[in-house]
Amino acid sequence: MNEPVFILKGNIVYSKNKDELRILKDHYLISESGLVKGVFEKVPPEYAQVSVSDYGECLIIPGLTDLHVHAPQYTFRAMGMDMELLEWLETNTFPEEAKYQDLEYARRAYRIFTDNLKRSATTRACIFGTIHRDATLLLMDQLEQSGLVTYVGKVNMDRNCPDYLREESAEESGIQTVEWIKDVLHKKYQNTMPILTPRFTPSCSDELMENLKKIQMYYQIPVQSHLSENPGEIAWVKELCPWSEFYGDAYDRFGLFGADCKTVMAHCVYSGKEERQRMKENGVFIAHCPESNMNLSSGVAPVRTFLEEGMHVGIGSDVAGGSTENLFKAMALAIQASKLRWRMQDDSLKPLTLEEVFYIATKGGGEFFGNVGSFEPGFELDAVVLDDTRIVHSQNLDVRARLERMIYLADEREVRAKYVRGREICLQ
Ligand code: GUN
Ligand code: FE
């Protein structure tokens, strides 16, 4: 279905706002030139000649945005989880990421990642590669072919990491990054964009951060990194940057924390009032990664506070801190984690609702990509068609109940069709 105008029919669900769903049974979703024209009860007369894909009883939801995922870590997902962040990085992550120096290894590993992401309900993602330029380009080639829309970053790291995964110097890291960006621009991708990716403060010297800011200003590209994830990491940043007012300030000092530089920070489990205030002022997006935060014993982020304070929040799988690219699982875990936090840590923050989590996974994270994650007119048409017949039920359920079941039970097997920017993705 790649005509400039087409129509999808089914049970259409999207977020009106963070507290309310719009549920439209047996409605028609019209896509025109890659954008949503609207959702209609009947096909308007001027569209009477347009072909309709009738998905019957299926649910049709906006595509999901994975605001934080590490492509090279897909190989060791669901393995080696009995550690906290810093030990886990040294033991599992750095040795695996070093393997992407070998392009044949990278090609095979990234093929599996890209194919599985393509078959999931995810339509947009912010993705970390490794420090390797060529392997990161290869990943971008594969993603471009998939039809998904992604930001992808060549990782920068020049300190506090093993020799085998350390860039030679801040200068060399900057040079490699510029060459990589030039390569990317030369490729003229339609759907795949570069994003600067300083791994996190502990692995980036001040000089490297300064170089990245110059690159960011010159090429006007966004930034992704990690923030206030785990107590051990946060204490380390205090030691490394005694001048910083809080962790986020160690990015902001270099101009890599929102404001004139679109930024997404993963985790923010321990972001205090001042850090949140700065993020709000600077328009920094938060990628909430509940599964990773549990697996690495980091904690539970105060997502309700983020929402109440009007911050930008999306959801992230954070594979391989998280074990799966399936964002339905991330949504369910976001709700479940918020309940434990409420009961055990802070009863002033009520658990997250289905409406809130669905909003975060669609429109909240989608906003990083522009008008994405909704079926309001003018939004880019990213849609996922969910067929829930595999998960049998003896009664007729209403659409909201069926959506809730999808959040707790669905995986790629429920994804019957997927559209990104008005183009159907081949799920094979
Ligand atoms: N902080 C720095 N690097 C990483 C990473 O690869 N995963 C997670 N979860 N946190 C990080
Ligand atoms: Fe991460």
- Widest sheet: strand ordering: 3-2-1-4-15-16-17
Shape: globular
Give the overall pLDDT as a whole number: 98
**What is the gyration radius calculated from CA atoms?**
21 Å
- Spans of at least 5 consecutive residues whose pLDDT stays below 50 are none
Q: Helix and strand succession?
A: EEEEEHHEHEEHEEHEHHEHEHHEHHEHEE
Task: Report the biggest beta sheet as strand number plus sense, adding barrel if it closes.
Answer: 7 strands, mixed
* Straight-line N-to-C gap: 15 Å
Alpha-beta classification: alpha/beta
Q: What is the helix tally?
A: 13
Level-1 CATH class name of the largest domain: Alpha Beta
CATH superfamily of the largest domain: Metal-dependent hydrolases
Protein name: Guanine deaminase
GO molecular function: guanine deaminase activity; zinc ion binding
Domain Amidohydrolase-related: 60-423
Keywords: Hydrolase, Metal-binding, Zinc
Q: Would you mind describing this structure in some detail?
A:
The protein has 13 helices and 17 strands. It has 428 residues and is of the alpha/beta class. It folds into two domains: 111 residues, Roll (Urease, subunit C, domain 1), CATH 2.30.40.10; 300 residues, TIM Barrel. It has a seven-stranded mixed β-sheet with strand order 3-2-1-4-15-16-17. The protein has a four-stranded parallel β-sheet with strand order 5-6-7-9. Strand 16 and strand 17 form a beta hairpin. Helix 2 packs parallel to helix 3, helix 3 packs parallel to helix 4 and helix 11 packs across helix 12. The model has no long low-confidence stretch (mean pLDDT 98). It binds guanine and fe (iii) ion. The site of fe (iii) ion (FE) has 6 residues, from strand 5.
